[in-house]
Amino acid sequence: ALxxxxxxxxxxxxxANRLNLWITQGKVEMDLLRSNxxxxxxxxxxxxxxxxxxxxxxxxxxxxxxxxAAGISMLGAIISLTLFSQLEKNLRHREKxxxxxxxxxxxxxxxxxxxxxxxxxxxxxxxxNAAAEKMFGYEPAEVxxxxxxxxxxxxxxxDCDDDETQTVDxx
Length: 171
Known about the structure:
two-stranded antiparallel ribbon; 75% helix; rod-shaped
């Protein structure tokens, strides 16, 4: 349409030919530019599709990892609850056995005719039976928790007053 207007105008033939050439060249360049834009758009669509596919794969992997982590966490929680339950049962059983053992020891110590004094590793009195009460003249409440040195005669303790652990070692 533009070329027919140029040919029908009052331009000189040389000017018209030159103008027609420019219009034709411009049209060819515009067609080439359109073709390049279409190719560019297709390539961008292909890259966008590939990127979306990659993102979907990554999302799927992340979701799988989250589900696996949640499953492992649940399994760990179940295992830990089971272990705590077993530990609690074991602790209760041991406490019961310890109580029974202590009760038996107290009964034996209380009924022994000899004086019995039981010490801890530091030399403090933990158990003091009735025969020991008669032997030493102290009530159990007076000596339990005290060092054994309060029951020993002065000649034996005079060299041990500075170090009460030596008294325990002499026994």
